[in-house]
Specification:
The protein is an alpha/beta fold. The protein has 11 helices and 10 strands.
Length: 336
C-alpha cells in the first residue's frame, strides 16, 4: 500500500464565501473581522490542495504548511478537495474570501486545464494573486515488477504486440503525467488505455494493486515505491537523470528528442487578498524552502526546489497557459 505518513495535519471542511465585495459586507454578520496584516493570522489558515492525498501537490503543501504555521505564528491546515482534474479545488479557492485564510497549493493542472476544458471555474490570470513558485519534479513512467517489463523498449514492444493488453493510470485528465503518456503513445506508435484517477496517490495505488499495469506520475509520490522495489521506473521526463535514481534513464536519452515535461507546484491566494499578507506569505515560504534541511528533504522526496516569488509565479502562468493549450491541441485532445 502507498505510504501516506506525510499527511501531517488533520483535514477540515472548507468555508466557501462570496467574492471581495460580498465578503466585506457579510463579514460583520458572520462575526468575522476584515483581515489585518498586523494581526494576521487571527484564526486557522487553510491550504486547499485540489487533488487526493499522497500526491506531489499534497506532499508539498503539507511540508510547507507545517513550517509555515510556525513561521507566521498560527495554525495552517491542508484540505484535499479533489475532482474534475483539479478544477473543483481550484474553483473553490478562487471564490473564497480574499482575506488570507484560504490559500491554494496547486500543480501544473492550473495552467493545463484552461486548454483542456471548455469551461473552468477560474480565470488563471485574474482570479488569483501569486504567492510563490515552490518547486518542480519530473514525471516518471512506472510498471508493476510482476509485469516482467524492465525497459521502455520492452514496454513499447509489448504494447505493439497486443494493443488491447495494457492500460495506464494517471493523476487525472490533463495533468502533465497524462499528457506525457499521451505523448509516449504518439512518439512510440503504441496504444494503451488511459485510466484517470483523482490524484497521484490513487494512481500509484492502482499500479501497486495490479488494477493497471503502467502508471505515469510525478516523481515525489512514486519515489519511495521505486526505492523499495515495489515499482519499476522505466524513465523520467526530466532534462537529466534524478540524482538518487542513477539507473533510471531520461526519455531524451532513450532517443525521444525534446521529451521533457515536469509538474510544478505553485502557491496562490484569491485575487484581492491584501498585498501585505501576500508579501508575508511569500517571504516566509521562500525562507522555508531555502532552509537547507527542508530543501534536502524535498529533494529526497523528488522535488527540485525553485523558491521564487510572485513575479516568477505570474510569469510561469502567463507562459504555460498558452503552451499547454497548444500541446493539448497537438495531441488531438478535444476540450471536455
Amino acid at each position: 500500500m502507498l505510504d501516506t505518513k506525510l499527511a501531517y495535519p488533520s483535514r477540515r471542511e472548507i468555508l466557501a464565501t462570496a467574492g471581495l465585495a460580498l465578503g466585506a459586507l457579510a463579514a460583520p454578520r458572520l462575526g468575522l473581522k476584515p483581515a489585518s496584516a498586523a494581526a494576521y493570522p487571527e484564526r486557522t489558515v487553510k491550504i486547499i490542495v485540489p487533488f487526493a492525498p499522497a500526491g506531489p501537490t499534497d506532499i508539498m503543501a503539507r511540508i510547507l504548511g507545517t513550517h509555515l504555521g510556525e513561521a507566521i505564528g498560527g495554525t495552517v491546515i491542508v484540505e484535499n478537495k479533489a475532482g474534475a482534474g483539479g478544477n473543483i479545488g481550484i474553483g473553490t479557492a478562487a471564490h473564497a474570501d480574499p482575506d488570507g485564510y484560504t490559500l491554494l497549493v496547486t500543480s501544473s493542472a492550473y495552467v493545463v486545464n484552461p486548454g483542456l476544458y471548455a469551461k473552468v471555474p477560474y480565470d488563471p490570470y485574474q482570479d488569483f494573486a501569486p504567492i510563490a513558485e515552490l518547486g518542480t519534479s519530473p514525471n516518471v513512467f512506472l510498471v508493476n515488477p510482476k509485469l516482467g517489463i524492465n525497459t521502455m523498449a520492452e514496454l513499447i514492444a509489448r504494447a505493439k504486440a497486443d494493443p488491447n493488453e495494457l492500460n495506464y493510470a494517471s493523476p487525472g485528465i490533463g495533468t502533465t503525467p497524462h499528457l506525457s503518456a499521451e505523448l509516449l503513445k504518439i512518439v512510440g506508435g503504441i496504444q494503451i488505455t488511459h485510466v484517470p484517477f483523482s490524484g497521484a496517490g490513487p494512481a500509484i495505488q492502482a499500479v501497486l494493486g495490479g488494477i493497471t499495469q503502467v502508471c505515469c506520475a510525478a516523481l515525489p509520490p512514486a519515489h519511495p515505491q521505486i526505492e523499495s522495489g515495489a515499482l519499476k521506473a522505466l524513465a523520467v521526463t526530466g532534462a537529466q537523470r534524478w540524482f538518487d535514481l542513477p539507473n533510471v534513464p531520461t526519455m531524451v536519452e532513450l532517443g525521444f528528442k525534446d521529451f521533457i515535461a515536469d509538474t510544478f507546484q505553485g502557491f496562490l491566494a484569491p485575487a484581492k487578498t491584501p498585498p501585505s499578507i501576500v508579501e508575508l506569505l511569500s517571504a516566509k515560504s521562500i525562507e522555508i524552502l531555502k532552509t537547507p534541511k527542508i530543501a534536502e528533504q524535498l529533494r529526497n522526496d523528488g522535488f527540485e526546489v525553485i523558491a521564487n516569488g510572485p513575479d516568477d509565479m505570474r510569469k510561469r502562468i502567463e507562459d504555460e497557459v498558452p503552451k499547454w493549450r497548444e500541446v493539448v491541441a497537438k495531441a488531438g485532445i478535444k476540450p471536455v
